[in-house]
Amino acid sequence: MIAVVLGVENYDMVFEYSKRLLEYGFKNYSIQPVIAPNSYITSVPVSNASGNHNLDILASPDGLECLLPNNSKNTDYEIERYIMENIEAPVKKGDVLGFIEVKRNGITIGKVDAVASRNVEKLQPSEEPQSVIIKTVADPVFKKVTTGALIFMLMFLMLRFTLRRISRSLRSKDKKIFRP
Description:
By secondary structure, the protein is of the alpha+beta class. The chain has helices at 13-28, 129-138, 140-177; strands at 29-35, 40-47, 54-59, 64-69, 78-83, 87-88, 96-104, 107-116.
């Protein structure tokens, strides 16, 4: 604190007046917390975000302390929020997205940054179905499984066709033998 005494007629009174001013200042004023560190300010939407689109905005980890009269109340000062509009992903935890200004009697007594509470990742567009199909068909495991299944089905059909021919020929022989 600085005390300035001007216009004192008696040089010996300068010390006394300075002492009174300093005592008055220390007795009636103190540094008080106005905005707590990491306190919730508001929630804002984030465009192009993957997952939760709402982001909580917090006061900076430092918070805000101001020199105020000891008898001051929360209603003695105004808090104005200036938060960015149209916030787009990606956002990192701690990114400054605005600020809070504290005014008393129309005079700014302090500012504190408004920061992001968490990371918000950018929404990645999904792949087109055609590219997914092309990747699947080009996969060597898919090719081996498909080739094996086709060979198995071909062998099954050949076996079935062969067994049917044998069965028909046996039936036709049986019919010729047992005719009266």
